[in-house]
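in:
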């Protein structure tokens, strides 16, 4: 199988500015995210399985901050020939262009791409919403209003999957997890310099919160139950349900 182009964005000497989802990132994103997020393959595959189990016929699945559509495409595979509608939203044109050409090679299917800001896009008739590693890039003041709009657009009994890089409240554990994370990146072939440059580029752009903060906000919005279903050091994924029967 053809390997995706390798992420070498932070190898050079140029001092990076703030991280942006431009064409250079889109071109290597598949490799970048697999080598930068411990558990990404599991979260994507098991998330698709959770989505398939909670999809309600005649409703929509939203993949918010879809990038190259990994979650959407995993769900398409899981759903096999079951009819469904998947709405994949991202505000990066290069990401969506790459997803659209992937979809074209598959000869169409149930995924509709929307080049929109997830803080403004319409969310309606959703039984499943995926927010995989996207909320962390949203301005913290916009996070609760976004989650409220998602909640309002969901069917009773609907499922939200929220995956994020997280902070850990205990400073020693937080330091340990960050250390383990950097070891993971070194094991994935990133050099110390690449790791520290990427970290600097993300500093003002990716703003993580603790699992406690995520859980409390989801509960304030109305989701119940809310529960982490996966964690690998400072990366976690939660399930959050809109109460009521399907
Ligand atoms: C995956 N979910 O492969 N509106 C729309 N999209 C946005 C916004 C916004 N306001 N802000 C950021 N994005 C994917 C990975 S990546 C995570 C998600 C990462 C988009 C941004 O353009 C990018 O494609 C995505 O959110 C975040 O499972 O790079 O660590």
């Amino acid at each position: 199988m053809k390997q995706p182009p390798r992420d070498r964005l932070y190898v050079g000497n140029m001092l990076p500015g703030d991280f942006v989802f431009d064409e250079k990132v889109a071109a290597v994103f598949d490799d970048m995210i697999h080598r930068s997020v411990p558990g990404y393959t599991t979260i994507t595959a098991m998330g698709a399985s959770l989505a398939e189990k909670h999809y309600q016929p005649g409703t929509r699945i939203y993949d918010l901050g879809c990038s190259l559509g990994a979650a959407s495409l995993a769900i398409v595979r899981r759903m096999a020939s079951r009819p469904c509608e998947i709405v994949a939203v991202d505000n990066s044109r290069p990401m969506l262009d790459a997803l659209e050409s992937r979809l074209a090679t598959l000869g169409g299917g149930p995924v509709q791409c929307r080049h929109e800001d997830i803080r403004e896009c319409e969310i309606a008739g959703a039984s499943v919403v995926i927010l995989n590693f996207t909320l962390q890039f949203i301005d913290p003041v916009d996070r609760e209003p976004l989650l409220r709009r998602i909640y309002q657009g969901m069917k009773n009994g609907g499922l939200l999957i929220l995956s994020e890089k997280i902070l850990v409240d205990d400073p020693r554990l937080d330091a340990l997890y960050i250390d383990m994370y950097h070891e993971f990146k070194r094991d994935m072939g990133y050099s110390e310099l690449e790791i520290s440059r990427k970290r600097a580029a993300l500093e003002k752009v990716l703003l993580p919160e603790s699992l406690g903060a995520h859980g409390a906000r989801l509960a304030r919005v109305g989701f119940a139950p809310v529960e982490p279903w996966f964690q690998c050091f400072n990366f976690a994924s939660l399930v959050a349900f809109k109460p009521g029967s399907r």
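note: The pocket of GEK is lined by residues 21, 33, 44, 65-67, 70-71, 89-92, 95, 117-119, 132-134, 137-138 (CB under 6 Å).
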